[in-house]
Specification:
Layout: E1 8-13, E2 22-24, H1 38-61, H2 69-90, H3 102-126, H4 129-136, H5 139-149, H6 157-175, H7 187-207, H8 209-212, H9 217-243, H10 250-278, H11 280-284, H12 290-301, H13 308-324, E3 332-338, H14 345-353
Length: 358
């Protein structure tokens, strides 16, 4: 995603539509035939950032800090607007956004940034960090279901089994929890709110493809977050000021910077860079570590103790997400060389769905 692929050995894929094999472009070959090992090191920081992000939000919600969802989002998007604005300035020589796309972009930003960010942040306030991280990671399941219902995805027994397994794991996580002094009264509600957030994020992945056909992922991400900031900053600005952010201690400020700069900007940039350099399939493997990081961080910092049923549910849900993902077909390298384009449509959609959602 985001760059023109170079020439590479063609790959022979068996066709399920006919008895003859076909030459198709491989989504795993990218502009770098032998990517630097550093890209794997940098990508390894991303699940750490995303996983810890859920804990940071819980800290910012603590009464001693005093942020509401709206105030926190206002603070975040003031910082993110400056950073994404700078990114767009640096990309001013890239293809400009057509005037006819701005209405679609604004509606898209309102739903997938304005509404989604509030739902996502509210869910974390209501439930635990680990459950939040797990439930938002089910978005690839929802991508498949939305695409199937829209008629753009054919029936696939393996992926349907993945959906069923994933839902079973989610049920184990939601209904297998013990009592918690912090979220006992709101945890189940928060879990279902986070499922709504996962559906919204999956919708972002599905409906962004029209834009990704014309513009780079980073340009789209920067633009929709700037448009979303127009809505989110005014809504919580008064509450943000009442918290007096200039008087906050070191830990809350580090959490704000983590939520805004690292999870909000760096993670997007590094994720799409990984997709471009090493391919969608390898990059998306890093997403499996996010719920585990959130689970460990929640236990060590917030003293959230999952039950055995919940731990089992996490494993089952991750298995379901893995089964529901599109699997790369068997590949046999041949000697011919053919030019090819970037990621296939569904590889792009899945990469976005499993990418930064916080």
């Amino acid at each position: 995603m985001g760059g023109r692929a170079t020439r590479a050995p063609a790959v022979l894929w068996g066709s399920h539509m006919s008895g003859q094999a076909q030459f198709e472009p491989s989504a795993e070959y990218h502009e770098t035939a032998h990517p630097s090992p550093w890209i794997y090191g940098w990508l390894a920081t991303v699940p750490l950032i995303w996983g810890f992000n859920f804990v940071c939000l819980k800290i910012l919600y603590h009464p001693d800090v005093g942020f509401t969802v709206e105030g926190m989002l206002s603070a975040r998007y003031i910082i993110m607007a400056l950073l994404f604005g700078a990114i767009l300035l640096l990309q001013r020589n890239s293809k400009p956004i057509d005037r006819g796309d701005y209405l679609y972009l604004f509606i898209f930003a309102l739903v997938t940034v304005g509404i989604y960010q509030w739902v996502f942040a509210k869910a974390i306030q209501l439930t635990s960090a680990a459950e939040s991280a797990l439930l938002i990671s089910t978005s690839p399941i929802w991508v498949f279901l939305i695409s199937f219902l829209m008629g753009t995805q054919r029936f696939d027994a393996r992926r349907m089994i993945g959906v069923a397994v994933g839902f079973a794991g989610v049920a184990m996580v939601i209904f297998g929890a013990g009592k918690s002094a912090d979220v006992a009264d709101t945890r189940v509600l928060g879990d279902f709110v986070m499922i709504v957030a996962a559906i919204l994020w999956a919708s972002y992945a599905v409906f962004s493809h029209r834009l990704l056909e014309k513009y780079s992922p980073l340009k789209i991400v920067a633009t929709i977050h700037l448009l979303g900031a127009i809505v989110l900053i005014p809504i919580g600005f008064g509450q943000m000021i009442s918290v007096e952010p200039w008087s906050l201690g070191l830990v809350p400020w580090l959490c704000i910077l983590q939520y805004s700069v690292l999870a909000g900007v760096y993670a997007f940039w590094m994720w799409y860079r990984g997709v471009k350099r090493i391919g969608a399939s390898q990059t998306m493997l890093f997403q499996y570590f996010v719920p585990l990081v959130a689970l460990v961080a929640g236990y060590l910092i917030l003293h959230e103790i999952p039950t055995q049923w919940q731990i089992a549910g996490i494993v089952v849900t991750i298995l379901g997400v893995h089964l529901a993902r599109k699997q790369a077909p068997p590949q046999i390298a041949v000697t011919e060389s053919e030019p090819f384009e970037e990621l296939e449509e569904e590889d792009e959609v899945t990469a976005i769905a499993e990418g930064p959602s916080a």
